Amino acid sequence: ERLLAPSGLLAGKHVIVTSGPTHEPIDPVRYIANRSSGKQGHAIAKAAAEAGARVTLISGPVDLPDPKGVTTVHVESAREMLTAVEKALPADIGVFAAAVADWRVANAGEQKIKKKDGALPNLSLTENPDILATISRLTQNRPALMVGFAAETENVIEHAKQKLAKKGCDLILANDVSPATGVMGGESNTVHLVTKSGVETWPTLSKTEVAGRLIAHVGALIGDAKP
Ligand code: CTP
Ligand code: CA
């Protein structure tokens, strides 16, 4: 395993990482979710800790161990994730890799929904808060560097550029998550680093290598920002 970020690069920095999917309840026994494994977000938390940062990892439900040397906060829903991120502030760097569910059920039942002679349940959806946009737009307590992901299945770069502008973050790691790529749940990732000044396409790397390269990049940017 290559360690790409020099140790001590992020010494004295606090990094908040979000990772994994969120689960949005339908009733006490059912939920809406997505295929995120949390591997990329967890690898980033680990790489940041290895680079000497104090790391708070806010994780949705995943089948991964808590990374060593990282404070991990476990949440279920998007709204819980936002609250946990707000509680973890202030931070120098935010890397929001979670695949946050875009919608939740507005009328989630307090009891298990029962079948009723073929009548279908009437679930109405409402949009979840956008955690990356909310934190990137803070006027007080905004981390100096905000990194988002753009999970796309088509027009990857174009969509990522739109997201960068819309959400107000500094960097976007854009990736193609079409089923054929095997990114969702897989071990490797092909990402494009999108900033206001352009696009840099990285070769296909393991998720650990993507994490190391991102932390090296972020460390260089934060270093340059020093007075
Ligand atoms: N994100 C977030 N909160 C949300 C939705 C997304 O923090 N409610 C973050 C993700 O963690 C990621 C970035 O925003 O860093 C982009 O997520 P993505 O799902 O690609 O973008 P959306 O804005 O949700 O747009 P869409 O799913 O329609 O492409
Ligand atoms: Ca989304």
TrEMBL record:
Record GO terms (molecular function): FMN binding; metal ion binding; phosphopantothenate--cysteine ligase activity; phosphopantothenoylcysteine decarboxylase activity
Cofactor note: Binds 1 FMN per subunit.
Region Phosphopantothenate--cysteine ligase, annotated ranges: 15-227
Reactions the enzyme catalyzes: (R)-4'-phosphopantothenate + L-cysteine + CTP = N-[(R)-4-phosphopantothenoyl]-L-cysteine + CMP + diphosphate + H(+); N-[(R)-4-phosphopantothenoyl]-L-cysteine + H(+) = (R)-4'-phosphopantetheine + CO2
UniProt cofactor(s): FMN; Mg(2+)
GO cellular component: phosphopantothenoylcysteine decarboxylase complex
UniProt keyword annotation of Repressor present: no
Listed EC numbers: 4.1.1.36, 6.3.2.5
All residue ranges annotated as the DNA/pantothenate metabolism flavoprotein C-terminal domain in the record: 10-218
A GO BP annotation: pantothenate catabolic process
Coiled coil location: none
Signal peptide, first to last residue: none
Function: Catalyzes two sequential steps in the biosynthesis of coenzyme A. In the first step cysteine is conjugated to 4'-phosphopantothenate to form 4-phosphopantothenoylcysteine. In the second step the latter compound is decarboxylated to form 4'-phosphopantotheine. Catalyzes two steps in the biosynthesis of coenzyme A. In the first step cysteine is conjugated to 4'-phosphopantothenate to form 4-phosphopantothenoylcysteine, in the latter compound is decarboxylated to form 4'-phosphopantotheine.
UniProt record similarity statement: In the C-terminal section; belongs to the PPC synthetase family.
Name used for this protein in its record: Coenzyme A biosynthesis bifunctional protein CoaBC
Organism: Microvirga vignae
Residues included from the entire protein: 178 to 404 of 404
